[in-house]
From TrEMBL, chains B, D:
Official protein name in the record: Monosaccharide ABC transporter membrane protein, CUT2 family (TC 3.A.1.2.-)
Record-level GO cellular component terms: plasma membrane
Name of one Pfam family that matches: BPD_transp_2
Source taxon at top rank: Bacteria
Organism placement in taxonomy: Bacteria, Pseudomonadati, Pseudomonadota, Alphaproteobacteria, Rhodobacterales
Residues annotated as signal peptide: none
Compartments where found: Cell membrane
Entry-linked InterPro entries: ABC_transp_permease
Keyword match Transmembrane helix: yes
Transmembrane segments: 22-46, 58-77, 84-103, 109-129, 136-155, 175-196, 224-244, 264-294
Organism in which the protein naturally occurs: Paracoccus tibetensis
UniProt membrane topology term: Multi-pass membrane protein
Keyword Methyltransferase assigned: no
Main location: membrane
Automatic annotation (TrEMBL), chain C:
Membrane topology: Peripheral membrane protein
Pfam family, one: ABC_tran
ATP-binding is among the record's keywords: yes
CDD domains: ABC_Carb_Monos_I, ABC_Carb_Monos_II
Protein name per the record: Monosaccharide ABC transporter ATP-binding protein, CUT2 family (TC 3.A.1.2.-)
Entry's Gene Ontology molecular function annotations: ATP binding; ATP hydrolysis activity
Subcellular location: Cell membrane
GO CC terms: plasma membrane
Organism the protein comes from: Paracoccus tibetensis
Alphabetically ordered keywords of this record: ATP-binding, Cell membrane, Membrane, Nucleotide-binding, Repeat, Sugar transport, Translocase, Transport
ABC transporter domain boundaries: 2-238, 237-495
Matches recorded under InterPro entries: AAA+_ATPase, ABC_carbohydrate_import_ATPase, ABC_transporter-like_ATP-bd, ABC_transporter-like_CS, P-loop_NTPase
């Protein structure tokens, strides 16, 4: 048989987070002489299932699955397993007989960012959440954030709006948030894409509002290093996720029978102090 | 297909009556040429393309948009448009899943509820267009927002999973080797063909798209017909919802974003005039399959996803450009 | 059988029918006469329930009736052929005829064979041979008119309204229609017939009712009036001699436009003709003989198999009508609604549509004052009856709409005008004015091609006539040879040379 | 506005000449009523709404879609539609940013490139529609995919940041208290108004939407006009791209997804007939502001985002329904 064939389906690919994942995958695959097929679901579960079906037609051996939606891709997981393909979920888990799941501790990430925000505000003031597309990792971040905020008596959550993780949408949404809450002191964005829009809105308003987020995207890290409203992001490790994920899959490919079903990847705070040294 | 059915072919073709001639002047010429050209290209580019397995695979992938495109064809034939189909489908699927999972209701009720939601919203659109005299594009744009919002409110943003196993039959089941969604799609197309070509209602659909005032003056109940076509669009959206729910095994309030554009593309690639009055349902099926083959083939060829958008766009343009000569 | 009493109708603040009476008996053909905009079509739309009267009563067989829509009128035995087509372009003739009245089989599905049979019967009665399986958009205007008539006949109406059905028909086709009308009359049908062709009135009608500006002028038997009296009733004045005198032929006049080779489609005949300065060149022929297609091909609007033409002796290619405009060639199309007017525009905007060069201010901007002044002059020239230059053209009567399109071209300095059925739907008074305008135009050394299906008009106006048959010119007649016999002979039996 | 210029208002209004009367019969009546009703509602519901600050805020937010909607108005008036504006805008912005950042070119060249990309793609659409005789909806749908793909290929999926500081002037700068994007938008609208109401070109745009055959037969260069309107749509997309790039301070290949639908909604809410031939550019401005106020007001009121979609849809329906009476 010819060389090992790895398929990876991404929920989206116009986000540096997933683009860097793909880069790490290509490097890793090149080092073992494997072939890589990549698809972009564009946040569309139905397309993601079709993409997986098409990859199965191409005879992949390993499927790295970055699900658009955990429940929705179950059919794809089952189909892959039926054809004897090894399935590892990356970044977000998938329902069904997944061999292993490698992903960030998203609840922790939300918790860390919002604790940081609350402390930076001295435990006092109004904060808002800039929500995103309702998928499990994002919902977990919001959950973690709320838990952190509740630990501070003086902090009130005054608004939750959806920026759809999109810079241009978030910009408008946060502008309105700022208008409607004259005392707003802090914003938590569920990801850096939305945070960059929020940052533009805060800077445009000239108000003193602190911003935290999740991801550790290069742009965000740079903004944090420069100082200003964007004070912290809880970094994930997309390259490491895919490296570990591929490792899990390969282990099984080589015959390992006891592969960890879940490998949580730690997250780490990036703020003005360590931003200069951080990159994915 | 009979000649009467073939609206849009010039007189000369009839006179000569040869089948090839008829085809060349039929509105199906474009879609067929596109289909053949694209399939041939794909077959050359990828060994995996022309296998029974992959062809069934493509048809299964096409089924959801293909079913949506049936209702869209009715609406477009009357000169309207329905931008809400994707959102209505998502809402219908979400509510059906919700009723089955959260309320523990019998599955049949869930499916009925899906149909009820789809047809209900379709009739809502239709009533506003027909009696409210509002432009379809803006009515259905608004309904699209409303349906998405309702779906998210109903589900709280979470997808609804934990459906009874039999639901997956609609999405991944097979009868013989033929996937169930494909069979459902074919049945829907057959019914649509009968309705459009063999009933008075169908003639009225074409008549309204051709000249609404004249149709009304001739005694066609234009408002009822418009109400009905939007109802049909809602119905096909809910059938698509059932198939999709079976495929995703969950209710997804966010599913089907942009499917309305795919459905429109299928209809127009299928040779139906966007201004209404001319077109064949068979063309829509070919258009939908064409789109499916593009998606599938480009994936099989392992083309960079960014590049796929560009190539897909160019091929659609090319297909329409070639087809234009035959009109 | 049908009696209208004191019918009034207002559109907004303007009353267009001021108390009109009409009585039509079973088994008679009743002519409804009046100038353009007199209110004939409006009255007939009221009879058929398409619009509602503001006041007055409609009674059928002595019973007061009120129709909320056309369907109710049909149920009461009323059928109408509209002045403006009410056909669906992409449906076939059969489908159009039975639209909303389809014949169904036991399953509730269409019984297409039965409908086809019935359609063939009706068309046979009319002695027309139409392709039945073709979308009617592919038929000529006259063929469409027959579909329209057949559609009304298929209703088996007891009261049949024909609003200018002959405007698009040639004499022989009109004869077919009259034959059918006579049969219907014998069967006791009451027919209301509207036409601007007075000779037709005398040929087919029993009694007449005349309207003038929405007023009821009177009714009488046809046998009791002369043409002159009729015209006077309609117009309120006498009209003399409608065709202006023809100038002497001038063979030395320069050829402004010459078509050296024109083949409409492969395998068809190849035609050529010359148009001289100062002349009116008539295009005669039966319906569908290719006159319209010939001029549209010349202008690059239709793809011809071959087309070579010279303008002022220089070889030119016109890619579209805009090129024609640039070379001073303008077209008055045969179907005002589909091809002539922008119905959402005012009269003013329609008239100035292709002539903003005239109203420039600075290099770019429209000079509204000048635009209005020029438009009003042009409107006066053709006597458009309207509330003003700002009125929307879709509120005008059919004839007035036609005049607006004519005004558009008068507003230009064109060297060649192509008039396709210029007086279709135009009343006698206005016709004379249009004829005079055409002569004034050629007297300035400009030239006109006039396509017309009205033989008297072709004979009365043309300096030379090209006769068409099967897509090509089979003969050109001039001077005293321009007679109806000569033209009809060529049009029906002329030899066509097919060229590969 | 001169009366002559006001294509689409019925004749009667002219006759009576009272300003109120004119307004009631003008196509602007609907959008104005909608605007007033919605503003009043918002003002009651939120204290923050009727402040100078917030009104400028709304106008600034509206500017991008508002500018896109200008080109869309031209296209829709001719009876076409342009689904590619959002994607063309994103591509223009991405390429401009890329040229400034990666190639270190002078900023002016970047802006010129944005305009070049926008106008170029617009003319591409226009040529296919006018000479290729292809339906606008499908041509621009294909261009939308192509432009998105090209943007992603060019940027590799990363946003392009690190723009020179002066670029932000276009997005967040102010002249006096008025934001620069608002000024740009107003200038674009003024130019569009002059073009549509004061020049022959404008009349031809309306004429084509009213009856294309009649316009062509009377000598209007319909193909050139169609080419031009798509070119204008590309131009306004590139102007919107400059404003957006200034607001985001980065080139975003995936910016503006769905903006084409917002632009269409603004045009139609503004009273322009979707079939072409009738409408006023001022209406589009009102429509865009109306949409902006809805977004802003619902946010100010702190309404659940899912609920916002529903309410927005219902208000749009209501506005069009009320307006319909005036048509
Ligand atoms: N919908 C309308 N709104 C306003 N005015 C109208 C409308 N329809 C008709 N009119 C006016 O009513 C008058 C009568 O028009 P009508 O069409 O009945 O004339 P007609 O006698 O049939 O003329 P023609 O011989 O030209 O067909 C005209 O002045 C016309 O402008
Ligand atoms: N749009 C069209 N497409 C195809 N064929 C057409 C079309 N219009 C007309 N024809 C056919 O072309 C032939 C010539 O039609 P044309 O309209 O030029 O005739 P005409 O002499 O002007 O007669 P009239 O105008 O009185 O109907 C007819 O046989 C007609 O059926
Ligand atoms: Mg009339
Ligand atoms: Mg003709």
């Amino acid at each position: 048989q010819d060389s090992l064939k790895i398929g990876m389906t991404f929920q989206e690919m116009n986000n540096p987070y997933f683009v860097s994942m793909q880069e790490a995958l290509n490097e890793a695959a090149a080092s073992i002489g494997a072939e890589v097929v990549v698809t972009d679901a564009g946040h569309n579960v139905a397309k993601q299932i079709s993409d997986v079906e098409d990859m199965l037609q191409q005879g992949i051996d390993i499927l790295l699955l970055n699900p658009t939606d955990s429940a929705g891709v179950e059919a794809a997981v089952r189909m892959a397993k039926d054809q004897g393909v090894i399935v590892v979920a990356v970044d977000a888990n998938a329902n069904g007989p997944v061999d292993s799941f490698v992903g960030s501790k998203n609840r922790d990430a939300g918790y860390q960012s919002c604790s940081y925000l609350a402390e930076a505000l001295g435990g006092q003031g109004e904060v808002a959440i800039l929500d995103g597309i309702p998928v499990v990792p994002i919902l977990e971040r919001v959950e973690g954030c709320k838990a952190a905020l509740e630990e501070h008596e003086g902090i009130t959550l005054v608004d939750t709006q959806n920026g759809r993780q999109d810079r241009s949408v978030a910009l408008g949404v946060v502008e309105n948030m700022i208008q409607s809450h004259p005392n707003l002191a802090g914003i938590f964005s569920v990801n850096d894409g939305g945070a960059m829009g929020a940052l533009a809105a805060i800077q445009g308003s000239g108000r003193d509002i602190k911003l935290t987020s999740v991801d550790g995207a290069p742009e965000a890290v740079q903004a944090i290093a420069e100082g200003g409203p964007f004070i912290q992001t809880t970094a994930q490790f997309p390259r490491d996720q895919v490296r570990v994920g591929l490792g899990m899959a390969l282990a099984q490919y080589w015959g390992a029978r006891v592969v960890p079903t879940e490998v949580p990847i730690d997250v780490r705070t990036v703020d003005a102090e360590n931003a200069a040294d951080f990159s994915w | 297909m009979s000649h009467d059915a073939n609206i849009g072919a010039p007189a000369k073709a009839r006179a000569r009556q040869s089948a090839l001639d008829w085809l060349l002047h039929s509105p199906l010429a474009l879609p067929l040429v596109g289909l053949i050209v694209v399939s041939t290209l794909m077959a050359f580019a990828s060994d995996n393309f022309f296998t029974v397995n992959n062809i069934l695979n493509v048809l299964r992938q096409v089924s959801v948009v293909g079913i949506l495109a049936v209702g869209m064809t009715f609406v477009i034939l009357t000169g309207g448009i329905d931008l809400s189909v994707g959102a209505v489908m998502a809402l219908a699927g979400t509510i059906a899943a919700g009723l089955m999972v959260n309320m523990g209701l019998h599955g049949g009720i869930g499916l009925l509820a899906a149909v009820g939601v789809g047809v209900g919203l379709g009739l809502f659109n239709g009533a506003l267009v027909a009696w409210g005299k509002m432009p379809a594009i803006i009515v259905t744009l608004a309904t699209m927002g409303i349906a998405r919002g309702l779906g998210l409110i109903y589900s709280g943003g979470y997808p609804i999973s934990g459906l009874p196993g039999w639901v997956s039959w609609f999405g991944v089941g097979r009868i013989g080797i033929v996937p169930v969604p494909v069979i459902i799609m074919v049945v829907v197309y057959l019914l649509a063909w009968v309705l459009l070509q063999r009933t008075a209602f169908g003639r009225h659909v074409y008549a309204i798209g051709g000249n609404e005032t004249a149709a009304r003056l001739s005694g066609v109940r234009t408002r009822m017909v418009k109400l009905a076509v939007f109802g049909i669009s809602g119905l096909t959206a809910s059938i698509a919802a059932i198939v999709l729910t079976g495929r995703l095994m969950s209710g997804q309030p966010n599913a089907g974003v942009g499917f309305e554009l795919d459905a429109i593309a299928a209809v127009v690639l299928g040779g139906t005039a966007i201004a209404g009055g001319r077109g064949l349902i068979l063309g829509t099926l070919i258009g939908a399959v064409l789109l499916g083959i593009l998606n599938n083939g480009l994936n099989l060829m392992g083309i960079n996803p960014y590049m796929q958008d560009v190539i897909k766009g160019l091929i659609i343009l090319l297909a329409i450009y070639i087809g234009r000569e035959w009109r | 059988m049908l009696a209208l009493k004191d019918i009034r109708k207002s559109f907004g603040p303007i009353e267009v029918l001021h108390g009109v009476d009409l009585e039509v008996r079973a088994g008679e053909v009743h002519a409804l006469l009046g100038e353009n905009g007199a209110g004939k079509s409006t009255l007939m739309k009221i009879v058929s329930g398409i619009i509602q009267p503001s006041a007055g009563t409609i009674s059928i067989d002595g019973q007061d009736r009120r129709f909320a829509n056309y369907d109710e009128a049909i149920a009461a035995g009323v059928g109408i052929v509209f002045q403006e087509f009410s056909l669906i372009p992409y449906l076939t003739a059969v489908e159009n005829m039975f639209l909303a009245r389809e014949i169904k089989n036991r399953l509730g599905l269409l019984d297409r064979r039965a409908m086809r049979r019935r359609a063939e019967e009706i068309l046979k009665k009319l002695e027309v041979d139409l392709p039945l399986d073709v979308p009617i958009a592919r038929l000529s205007v006259a063929e469409q008119q027959f579909v329209e008539i057949a559609k009304a006949l298929s209703l088996d109406a007891r009261i049949l309204v024909l609003d200018e059905p002959t405007a698009t028909l040639t004499p022989s086709e009109t004869e077919h229609l009259f034959k059918v009308m006579r049969e219907l009359r014998a069967a006791g049908v009451a027919i209301v017939f509207i036409s601007h062709h007075l000779e037709e009135i005398f040929e087919i009608c029993d009694r007449i009712t005349v309207l003038r500006d929405g007023e009821y002028v009177g009714s009488c038997a046809v046998a009791d009036v002369t043409t002159d009296q009729l015209v006077e009733m309609m117009v309120g004045r006498r009209i003399e001699n409608s065709f202006p005198p023809k100038p002497l032929p001038n063979p030395a006049a320069p050829v402004v436009l010459e078509v050296t080779e024109l083949q409409l489609r492969r395998g068809g005949p190849v035609s050529s003709f010359q148009l001289r300065a100062g002349e009116i060149l008539g295009f005669a022929g039966l319906v569908g003989s290719g006159r319209t297609e010939t001029v549209l091909s010349m202008l690059g609007e239709y793809p011809a198999a071959r087309c070579k033409l010279r303008i002022d002796g220089a070889e030119r290619r016109l890619r579209d009508p805009a090129d024609g405009l640039m070379h001073g060639i303008g077209l008055l199309p045969e179907s005002r609604k589909e091809q002539g007017l922008i119905t959402s525009f005012s009269i003013l905007q329609n008239v100035s549509l292709n002539n903003y060069g005239k109203y420039r201010r600075g290099h770019w901007f429209i000079d509204f004052k000048k635009e209005r002044a020029c438009t009003e002059t042009a409107m006066d020239q053709v006597r458009v009856k309207a509330q003003g230059a700002a009125a929307r053209v879709d509120t005008l009567s059919g004839g007035n709409q036609q005049k607006v399109v004519i005004a558009r071209w008068l507003n230009h300095q064109m060297r060649v005008l192509i008039f396709d059925e210029p007086t279709r739907g135009i009343d006698v008074g206005a016709k004379a004015e249009i004829y005079q305008l055409m002569r004034d135009f050629t007297a300035q050394g400009f030239a006109i091609i006039m396509i017309s299906s009205e033989l008297t008009e072709v004979i009365g106006m043309s300096d030379r006539v090209c006769v068409f048959r099967s897509g090509g010119i089979v003969a050109t007649v001039e001077g005293s040879a321009i007679t109806s016999e000569e033209i009809m002979t060529h049009a029906t039996t002329g030899k066509v040379h097919h060229v590969a």
